[in-house]
């Protein structure tokens, strides 16, 4: 069971890397901006030591 799960996760990671490598620079910047916005909106954004203004 664990081997098949590891295989599926590895395949998904490879697919993600393949799709990311085929993106244009504008698409990559948009994706990075969306990721930063998501981290800012969730509680996990504070785990990376980002200082919040009060």
List its traits.
single chain, 54 residues, mainly alpha, 2 helices, flat
3D architecture notes:
With 54 residues, the chain is mainly alpha-helical. The protein has two helices and no strands. The protein is flat and about 50 Å long.
Topology:
Blueprint: H1 2-21, H2 25-41
Residue fraction in strands: under 5%
Percent helix range: 55-70%
Which structural class do you get from the secondary structure elements? mainly alpha
- Overall pLDDT, averaged? 85
Q: Provide a count of the helices.
A: 2
What low-confidence regions span 5 or more consecutive residues with pLDDT below 50? Answer: none
How many β-strand runs? 0
The main pleated sheet reads as: none
Which sequence of SSEs, written as H and E, runs from N to C? HH
Give the N-to-C terminal Cα separation: 48 Å
Which shape, going by the Cα principal axes?
flat
Gyration radius from CA atoms, angstroms: 16 Å
Give a quick rundown of the structure.
It is built from two helices and no strands.
């Amino acid at each position: 069971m664990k081997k098949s799960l590891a295989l599926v996760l590895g395949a998904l990671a490879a697919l993600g890397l393949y799709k990311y490598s085929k993106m244009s620079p504008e698409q990559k910047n948009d994706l990075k901006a969306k990721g930063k916005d998501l981290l800012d909106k969730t509680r996990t954004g504070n785990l990376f030591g980002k200082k919040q203004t009060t």
